[in-house]
């Protein structure tokens, strides 16, 4: 291990050497002549800074981590600048974005947390300082691999949208245009942050829909944001995300409706207070298709007027079970055809279950429920022998938290306090 020498010590050594040389000059004899000139002391230098990817690298996979290290010093600044080149990446890149990274505890290394834009010129600038206050700088410029046409992961749709106010059960639903194979990397590229922090996790409905839900319902009256840092993530082999997105929505009041089907009544609570008891008629349940499902439903969409065609749920027109109705004040609660809606033709509301599986109400009550309902409100139904499937509509709370977490690609909860996601966004082995 080499001992380091301070500047003051170097000056004292130089002064001592000068005195010794002067004394030697006074006693020089003709036989020996003057002594040799002393070697100059090496100037002290700052720490050595290294950056990877290295200067001049080409075709760098955009999900490669940027790493900076300082030998015999600590890093004082790391800046990463990206300039998407001409083409689609340049068109989609907005204003310069912060490029997050993590500094080691000893300050000697820094590793990026995010991915780079495909097809970009990247410049990394780093500064380090040693114990003597000497600094060093390093710069590396390189280019990332472009995403090929047909192999660019894009966001098709998302629920909720920015600006929406939703119910306390609302999931975050993200739909992609291409299948995602590297699900853990994509999950770790999508961070949910809320004013009241909770545990949550992502699950997948197929390979193109990712769904985030909290462990329990959201706290009401708060703002939630979702950062989809998809640019540069390798969704599947050779398929890269090309843009980042941000979603911001509000969770409104807590409205939870409960319904035990044999009681023919729906109770609606808002912020813990009963605000309405509504007579209802549910599915007659002589067949599976007309049995109202039990479980935790979420309100999905609503219509003032809707044509309900049984063919859309697989019942052909020549079937004796076929129906086609024009209904008012309809609120969807599943993808298997269940709605809460007005049914002025049903004279058994409040006394018997005679519907095709929907929840029938009077026109007045249905109009009220339609007016109150937000996307993501909760309808908890019990009392039938048909359970809502977890992937039927937004039945995501049908999975217990343990099942939901185990079905996440990361297998770990994401805490919505802004602390980041559970794992790495970079490719394996990078």
What layout of secondary structure does this protein have?
Layout (H helix, E strand, L loop, with lengths): L6 H20 L21 E5 L14 E5 L2 E11 L3 H5 L8 E3 L5 E4 L7 E10 L5 E9 L8 E2 L1 E5 L5 E2 L5 E5 L6 H5 L2 E5 L4 E6 L4 E6 L7 E7 L5 E3 L2 E3 L3 E7 L3 E6 L4 E6 L2 E7 L15 E4 L3 E8 L14 E9 L6 E4 L16 E3 L1 H10 L5 E5 L18 H6 L7 E2 L15
Question: Any overview of this molecule?
Answer:
With 430 residues, the chain is mostly beta strands. It folds into two domains: 48-143, Immunoglobulin-like (Sandwich), CATH 2.60.40; 148-430, L,D-transpeptidase catalytic domain-like (Beta Barrel). The chain has five helices and 28 strands. It has helices at 7-26, 88-92, 183-187, 363-372, 401-406, and strands spanning 48-52, 67-71, 74-84, 101-103, 109-112, 120-129, 135-143, 152-153, 155-159, 165-166, 172-176, 190-194, 199-204, 209-214, 222-228, 234-236, 239-241, 245-251, 255-260, 265-270, 273-279, 295-298, 302-309, 324-332, 339-342, 359-361, 378-382, 414-415. The protein has a five-stranded antiparallel beta sheet with strand order 9-11-14-13-28, with no helix packed on it. Strands 21-20-19-27-22 form a five-stranded mixed beta sheet, with no helix packed on it. The two termini are 32 Å apart.
Provide a count of the helices. 5
Approximately what portion of the residues adopt beta-strand conformation?
35-45%
- Main beta sheet: 5 strands, antiparallel
* Strand line-up in the sheet with most strands: 9-11-14-13-28
CATH topology value of the largest domain: L,D-transpeptidase catalytic domain-like
Q: In the CATH hierarchy, what is the architecture of the largest domain at level 2? A: Beta Barrel
Radius of gyration: 33 Å
How many DSSP-defined strands?
A: 28
The level-1 CATH class of the largest domain = Mainly Beta
Name of the CATH homologous superfamily of the largest domain: L,D-transpeptidase catalytic domain-like
**Given the helix and strand composition, which structural class is it?**
mainly beta
| Coarse morphology | elongated
Mean pLDDT across all amino acids = 90
Helix content: 10-25%
């Amino acid at each position: 291990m080499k001992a380091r020498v301070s500047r003051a010590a170097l000056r004292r050594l130089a002064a001592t050497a000068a005195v010794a040389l002067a004394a030697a000059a006074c006693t020089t004899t003709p036989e020996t002549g003057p002594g040799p000139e002393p070697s100059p002391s090496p100037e002290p230098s700052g720490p050595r800074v290294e950056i990877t990817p290295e200067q001049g690298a080409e075709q760098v996979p955009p999900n490669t981590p940027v790493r900076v290290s300082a030998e015999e010093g600590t890093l004082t600044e790391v800046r990463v600048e990206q300039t998407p080149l001409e083409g689609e990446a340049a068109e989609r890149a907005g204003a310069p974005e912060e490029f997050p990274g993590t500094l080691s505890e000893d300050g000697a290394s820094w590793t990026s947390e995010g991915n780079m834009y495909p097809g970009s010129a990247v410049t990394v600038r780093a500064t380090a300082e040693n114990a003597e206050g000497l600094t060093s700088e390093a710069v590396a410029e390189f280019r990332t691999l472009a995403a090929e046409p047909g192999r660019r992961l894009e966001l098709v749709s998302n629920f909720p949208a920015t600006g929406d106010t939703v119910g306390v059960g609302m999931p975050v639903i993200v739909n992609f245009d291409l299948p995602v194979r590297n699900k853990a990397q994509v999950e770790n590229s999508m961070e949910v942050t809320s004013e009241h922090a909770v545990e949550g996790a992502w699950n997948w409905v197929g390979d193109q829909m990712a769904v985030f839900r909290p462990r329990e319902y959201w706290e009401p009256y708060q703002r939630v944001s979702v950062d989809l840092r998809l640019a540069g993530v390798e969704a599947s082999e050779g398929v890269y995300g090309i843009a980042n997105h941000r979603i911001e929505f509000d969770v409104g009041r807590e409205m939870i409706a409960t319904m035990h089907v044999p009681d023919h009544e729906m109770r609606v609570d808002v912020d813990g207070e009963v605000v309405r008891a509504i007579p209802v008629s549910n599915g007659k349940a002589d067949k599976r298709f007309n049995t109202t499902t039990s479980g935790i439903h979420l309100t999905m969409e609503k219509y003032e007027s809707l044509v309900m065609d049984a063919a859309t749920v697989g019942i052909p027109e020549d079937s004796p079970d076929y129906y086609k109705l024009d209904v008012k004040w309809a609120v969807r609660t599943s993808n298997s055809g269940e709605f809460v809606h007005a049914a002025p033709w049903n004279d058994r509301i409040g006394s018997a279950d005679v519907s095709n599986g929907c929840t029938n109400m009077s026109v007045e009550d249905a109009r009220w429920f339609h007016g109150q309902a937000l996307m993501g409100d909760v309808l908890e139904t019990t009392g039938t022998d048909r359970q809502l499937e977890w992937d039927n509509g937004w039945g995501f709370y049908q999975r217990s938290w343990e099942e939901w977490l185990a079905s996440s690609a990361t297998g770990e909860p994401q805490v919505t306090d802004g602390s980041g996601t559970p794992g790495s966004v970079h490719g394996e082995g990078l």
